[in-house]
Amino acid sequence: MQNFIRVSGKELNMSWIKLYLKNLFSNKKFLFLMLLLVIVLINAGHVLALSDEPQPPPHSDPSPEPDPA
Fold it and tell me: By residue range, what is the domain housing residue 24?
């Protein structure tokens, strides 16, 4: 099923998926929710870290033991 859209006197042949996505991304509420979701996911990345202890950089020497003196 094809949809025809009249834009400035021209007919554009668009599939229904493209038409749906075009309308979805022009919706301001949808864009606001997507922005909010991205912000929440970025902030949650710090909370959901894999480990609490910082890992030493690769190829680093182990810390030397203090002098027994």
Answer: 2-41
Give backbone dihedrals phi and psi of 37, rounded to 5 degrees, phi first. Answer: -65, -45
Distance CA(35)–CA(37), nearest Å, equals 5
pLDDT at 32 over 50: yes
Domain count, the chain: 1
Q: What is the rounded CA–CA span in Å between residue 33 and residue 40?
A: 10
- Cut 0.85: pTM above it: no
Q: Among residues 17, 13, 18, which one has the least CA distance to residue 2? A: 13
Q: Which two tokens stand for residue 25?
A: 């991304």
